[in-house]
């Protein structure tokens, strides 16, 4: 079990003091009254993707409020980060966290640990589905001030997975943040875009090339270097 797995499993206990809402208000076109009442009746950890999905996709837009999002967030994160819930997409969850003001919640230190563990999982766990651009978009929406540190961790290339993630991203097209949920006016977007085009990343790729003798990594680093130089 990874650090991220343990933190996901510990979410219910970490949010044990979040009050259960007595009512969830919302637009009847976006969530049925019966569906919202079912959320209130069902123990949080027993909610299925089908039951929670409509609320999670619409919360803070046409349904719900920050207080009820705080209560349901542990289950939303568990389902989204295990790919059991396709909508809302992870970057949209990050945006909703910021909208709800999560950094003022009592659970903020735990959530911050989880966000950090998620990024480390991106850079170290080859077996996961993570799209580095989408995860960074989500983290940038929730915690824009942490973007520079996350990029510095990526540029360490401490694990072959970190090289592979950059290689996959570089092959995807233009060297700019591409996830559809990026806020192009936001600080996280600007930080990521500048990093992709700046000299620090190219120097980090060159340093990684000099210290590895793995043929696969060498091929990936050469490709990335050529794309960056172009």
Characterise the protein shown here.
The chain has 230 residues and is mostly helical. The chain is 63% helix and 0% strand. It is built from 13 helices and no strands. Helix 6 runs parallel beside helix 8. It is elongated, with a radius of gyration of 19 Å. The N and C termini lie far apart (41 Å).
- The beta-strand count equals 0
- Residues in β-strands, percent: under 5%
Which range best describes the helical content: under 10%, 10-25%, 25-40%, 40-55%, 55-70% or over 70%? Answer: 55-70%
Shape: elongated
How many distinct helices?
Answer: 13
Average the pLDDT over all residues and give the rounded result.
93
Compute the gyration radius: what is it? 19 Å
Major sheet attributes: none
Oligomer: single chain
Structural class: mainly alpha
Distance between the ends: 41 Å
Question: Could you state the order of secondary-structure elements as H and E?
Answer: HHHHHHHHHHHHH
Brief digest:
63% of the residues lie in helices and 0% in strands.
Provide keyphrases for this structure.
13 helices; 230 residues; mainly alpha
Topology at a glance:
Elements (H helix, E strand, L loop, with lengths): L2 H7 L1 H4 L18 H9 L7 H10 L7 H16 L8 H11 L7 H17 L7 H11 L4 H9 L4 H11 L16 H11 L1 H13 L3 H15 L1
């Amino acid at each position: 079990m990874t650090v991220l797995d343990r933190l996901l499993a510990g979410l219910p206990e970490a949010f044990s003091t979040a009050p259960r809402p007595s009512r969830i208000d919302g637009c009847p076109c976006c969530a049925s009254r019966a569906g919202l009442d079912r959320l209130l009746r069902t123990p949080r950890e027993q909610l299925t993707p089908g039951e929670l999905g409509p609320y999670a996709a619409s919360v803070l837009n046409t349904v719900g409020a920050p207080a009820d999002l705080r209560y349901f967030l542990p289950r939303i994160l568990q389902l989204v980060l295990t790919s059991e819930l396709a909508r809302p997409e992870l970057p949209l969850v990050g945006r909703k966290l910021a909208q709800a003001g999560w950094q003022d919640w009592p659970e903020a230190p735990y959530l911050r640990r989880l966000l950090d563990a998620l990024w480390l999982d991106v850079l170290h766990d080859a077996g996961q589905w993570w799209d580095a651009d989408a995860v960074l978009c989500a983290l940038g929406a929730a915690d824009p001030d942490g973007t520079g540190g996350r990029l510095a961790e990526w540029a360490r290339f401490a694990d072959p997975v970190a090289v592979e993630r950059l290689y996959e991203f570089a092959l995807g097209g233009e060297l700019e943040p591409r996830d559809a949920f990026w806020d192009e006016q936001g600080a996280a977007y600007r930080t990521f875009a500048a990093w992709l085009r700046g000299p620090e990343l190219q120097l980090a790729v060159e340093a990684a090339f000099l210290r590895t003798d793995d043929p696969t990594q060498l091929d990936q680093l050469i490709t990335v270097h050529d794309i960056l130089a172009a």
